[in-house]
């Protein structure tokens, strides 16, 4: 079975089936119901977030002979022809391979003719940022004054590469990454209908790996099926994508807690020799240590087997909260350091050794230093110690631990200085400077905005008459 089969087979056919883009779907349906569909749309967002699916549904909905509540019926003559690809009035073009001026010129000539069957001739141009400059210019003229019977739906993963002249002529919709919960939901439906036997934990692992892209999630699922396995579990998924098994991660953590340098180097070497990526190993170690910490504070953990939980329990008994926090912190640091290094393995191994010889005293002194910092900040009158800070340093529940981990992963040196800046005069200068320095995209987006608050750490921007959708 080819990967595209699953993806194509389960491509959403109605707006209702699109997951995680509620605001966009609602606006489009309302426009169709009110018969106020624009002549050019730009759908932007990451891979697999639903842009092409929405484009196809929209193209059918505007042409459907019997639309229901803004949705295409998918049953009339037009919908059926569109679905089986025989409707010549809906033209799909991939700008990655058709990016020349000639390609766009042929569209320019075509648009003058009336559609053959449908009400509108709809052009869906995917990866539109790949068009050449000449092609953009040619497209621009058509976008400016399109005939009544023509609609354009442009899709791109990189809107920042589009000329502002194109951006300003389109209604723009920004597609969000899809949440893990929504991806699991969608995968469950697909697995049920396709009779794929898969565990809940495996679905969750796929959702995390897909990073908000349904297409990637389905690609991983498809690879699992292709391997000919009847029952897919977490280990199967991990094996396939090169993530080390939990037993190895546990062994490594056990060795670190026992300060057994030889053992930690052996276990990690085994994982690397087995083809596991160092970043994946580190990420799994961070996650696992975080879970031990959660178990230590709440005595509860989902998604682990009984044997795995026993191991986690033992690790939780062996290590103090401070030690676990310090390991998470150090692992994140190793992860950051190796990102740009050409000597990843050496950096990784050195990091592992350091984790083993890191005496507890040092961990505590680090934490004391941090607490002292907060105290000093509190003494300065203008500083607020808000919730996120207190969570950062006193993780005592699952949510707080998660916050702690998130915080240390993005932690940057902060100079807390709430000096108040005259935002009314300062902000327009900032925006104007963007124009001068050629950052036109940013400039157009920030035009007519007000800065409500500016200090060294925060800029609060107010967009006039805008909600989720940027027009
Ligand atoms: Zn229809």
Would you kindly provide a written description of the structure presented here, covering whatever features stand out?
A hairpin with a 4-residue loop joins β8 (about 450-455) and β9. The chain has 22 helices and 9 strands. The protein has 4 domains: about 10-175, P-loop containing nucleotide triphosphate hydrolases (Rossmann fold), CATH 3.40.50; about 180-240, Helicase, Ruva Protein, domain 3; about 245-360, Zinc Finger, Delta Prime, domain 3 (Up-down Bundle); about 425-460, no CATH class. The strands form 3 sheets. It has a 5-stranded parallel β-sheet, with helices on one face. The chain has a two-stranded parallel ribbon with strand order 6-7. The longest helix is centred in the middle third of the chain and has 21 residues, at about 280-300. The two termini are about 40 Å apart. The protein is an alpha/beta fold. It is globular and about 75 Å long. About 30% of the residues are buried. It has helices spanning about 5-10, 20-35, 50-65, 75-85, 100-110, 135-145, 165, 180-195, 200-210, 215-225, 235-240, 245-255, 260-275, 280-300, 305-320, 320-340, 345-355, 360-380, 385-395, 400-410, 425-435, 440-445; strands at about 40-45, 90-95, 120-125, 150-155, 170-175, 195-200, 230, 450-455, 460. Bound molecules: zinc ion. Zinc ion (ZN) binds near residues 65, 72, 75 and 78.
Itemize the secondary structure elements and their pairings.
Blueprint: H1 3-9, H2 22-33, E1 40-45, H3 51-63, H4 77-83, E2 90-94, H5 101-110, E3 121-126, H6 133-144, E4 150-156, H7 164-167, E5 171-175, H8 180-193, E6 197-198, H9 200-209, H10 214-226, E7 231-232, H11 234-241, H12 246-257, H13 261-273, H14 278-298, H15 306-318, H16 321-339, H17 344-357, H18 360-379, H19 387-393, H20 398-410, H21 423-436, H22 440-446, E8 450-454, E9 459-462
Parallel strand pairs: 1-4, 1-5, 2-3, 3-4, 6-7
Antiparallel strand pairs: 8-9
Helix pairs in contact: 1-10, 5-6, 8-9, 9-11, 10-11, 12-13, 12-14, 12-15, 13-17, 14-15, 14-16, 14-20, 16-17, 19-20, 21-22
Bound molecules: zinc ion.
